[in-house]
Amino acid sequence: MKRLIVITLILLAAAIAITVVYFKNLSPPGVRTGQVMHTIPDNATAVFEFNSEKGFYDIFKGNQLLSAVIGKDKLADLDTLRKLLITSPQLERFFDGQNVFISAHPSNGNDINLLITIPTTNDFKTDAFTNLNTQPNSGLSVTPIHNTVGTTYDVLVKAINKHFYITQKENNIFAGSFSKELIDQSLLYKDDKNRNIFIPLPEQQNANSLANLYINYNQLTPLFDQIFKNKNTDIFKSFKLLPALAALTLNFKNDALMFSGFTSIQHNHTASYLNLFADQQPVVNHLKDIFPSTTAYTINFAVSDPAKFSAGLSQWHIKAGISNEKDQLFSKIKAETGIFLKPEFEHLLSNEFAVVTTRYQEKYAIVSVKDGSKLRPIMMNISTMISDNIGQFNYDKVPFYLLGDAFSIFRKPYFMIIDNYLVLAATSSELTSYSDTYYNRKFISKTDQYNQFDNLQAERSNVAFFINFKNSQSILKRDLKDAFYDAFENSDPGWKSFYAASYQFSASDKNFYTNLCMRLNNTDSTATPIK
C-alpha cells in the first residue's frame, strides 16, 4: 500500500512539473501583456498592440489606413523587418502567435521614434540573432555590442540600408528600434512595478480584439512640444492636461480607424478641467449642427446637470487658488450693474457649450442657453453695445469664470445672442460673419462628407474634440514645426488623406468611455499593400 502511495505521489509530481513547464513555455500573449508593457520606457505617449499572425496583415492588405497614420516609407521599413526577422525561417517559431507592441516616443530630432517590443517563447536563445549571419541570403548582418548595462544587437537591414537595434529585457522580451537613442533609453530603463504607465486590457478582452491602443495623456505634452512651434497651442490643450490612461480596442472598418474603450482618470493626481465632466451623464450632442462650414477644429462640452457642473467648477477654482479673484470680479459687477451675474447665468445655462476655430483662424464660443430673451438684458448690462445685437464685455475673464478653462481665450469678448445661443468672439466682424453663417445655414453639418463622418461618431458624449484636416491646413502650416508640416503636406498617403478625426468622452462611473475615429477622404484610394 505504501509503495502504491509513493508511486502515485511521484506520478502526480511529474504531472505537475510537466504542466508547469508546458504552460510556462506557451507564454500566451494575453497573460504577458502586462509584463511587456512594464518594459516600455515611461515617456511613451501611445502603444499599439496587435497579434503577429498572418490574419492581421491580410485584413490590412491593400488598405491605406495604417500607412496614412504611420507613413508609407516607415510602414514599408517595418514590413521588411517583419519578413526578415520575425517571420524568417530561423526565428518564426520563437515569435509565432506573440503580440507586437509599437510605442511612440518623443525625440530630440524631427521625427517621432517608434519602439517595437515583443516577447518570445522561453526556449529562445540570443545567439539566434548572430546565427543569422551564417544564413545565406538572410538580408541581414548582425553585430553584438556589449557594454556594462547589457548587449545591443546592431542589425543592418540590407534591403533598406538601415540599422535596426535590438536589446533584451527581462522574461525573454525584446525591444527594437531604428533609433539608437531610443534603444539606449530602453536598455537603461528600470520599471517601477507599482506605477502604471499604461493599463492593459483584461485578458479575455485582449484575446478577442484585433488590435489595441493604449494612451498616456500625461505624455501628450512632450510629444506636442516636439511637433508644434508654439507650446501653448490650443489644439488638444484640455486633453493634454487630463491625468489619465486609456485602453481602447480597434473596431475594423475599411475606410476608418475606430477605437473604443475606457479612459481611466488618475484620481490621485491634480484634477484637470475635464474631470468636471466625469460626474455628468452622457448627453445627445446638438451644438455641432450649427458649427460653420469653415470649421477647422472644435471642442464641445455637454452636461446633464448644469447646476452640478457650475458647483464643481467653483470647487475647481478653489483648488486652483483663484476663487478670491473670481469673487472680487463678480462683486464688482454686482456693485456697478446690480446684476448677480454668476447665479443668473447658471440658471439660464443649458446643456452644451463649445469653442470653435475656423480655417480663417476665427474663434467662437457657442453656448446653448434655456432662454436667449432672458439672457439678453443681463449681457447688455455688463457690456458696451456697438449695435442692437452686438456688444463687448466691460469686464475681463468673465467666460473663464462662468464656463471654465477652455474659455480663457475670451478675455473681453464681443457677444451676440441668436435664438437660444450666446455667441462670443474676439471681434465684432467675426460675429457678423457667424450671423451670416447661422441665418443662411452655412453649417458643416450640411455637407455630405461631414455627415458620413458623423454617422461613425457616438451620439452622446460629454467632451468631444473634432478636427477637419483640410480646413485646419493653414493653421497647421503656421503652428507645426517645418519637418512635421512638410510630412503632413507631402506624404501620400498621410494624415492629409483623412477627412477628419474625433475623440469623444462619455462619462461612466467617474471615468470616461472613449471613442476615437479617423475617416479617410476617399474610400476608393489605395496604397502599397502589405504583402
Give a written overview of the molecule:
The protein has 20 helices and 22 strands. The protein has 2 domains: 202 residues, no CATH class; 252 residues, no CATH class. The protein is of the alpha+beta class and 531 residues long. Helix 14 runs antiparallel to helix 15. It starts with a helix and ends in an 11-residue tail after the last strand.
**What count of structural domains?**
2
Number of strands: 22
Strand content: 25-35%
Evaluate the radius of gyration.
Answer: 27 Å
Percent of residues in helical segments?
A: 25-40%
Give average pLDDT, whole number: 87
Q: Show unreliable segments.
A: 1-31, 524-531
What is the overall shape? Answer: elongated
Give the structural class: alpha+beta
Give the terminus-to-terminus CA distance: 64 Å
Major β-sheet annotation = 20 strands, antiparallel
Tally of contiguous helical segments? 20
Organism: Mucilaginibacter lappiensis
Protein name: DUF3352 domain-containing protein
Secondary structure elements and pairings:
Layout: H1 2-26, H2 29-37, E1 46-51, H3 54-59, H4 65-70, H5 72-86, H6 92-95, E2 99-105, E3 113-119, H7 127-130, E4 140-147, E5 150-157, E6 162-168, E7 173-177, H8 180-188, H9 203-208, E8 211-216, H10 220-227, H11 237-240, E9 244-250, E10 256-265, E11 283-284, E12 295-302, H12 306-320, H13 323-337, H14 341-348, E13 349-358, E14 363-369, H15 372-381, E15 383-385, E16 391-393, H16 398-403, E17 414-418, E18 421-425, H17 428-439, H18 448-454, E19 460-461, E20 463-468, H19 473-479, H20 482-490, E21 498-508, E22 511-520
Antiparallel strand pairs: 1-2, 1-8, 2-3, 3-7, 4-5, 5-6, 6-7, 8-9, 9-10, 10-22, 11-19, 12-13, 12-20, 13-14, 14-18, 15-16, 16-17, 17-18, 20-21, 21-22
Helix pairs in contact: 14-15
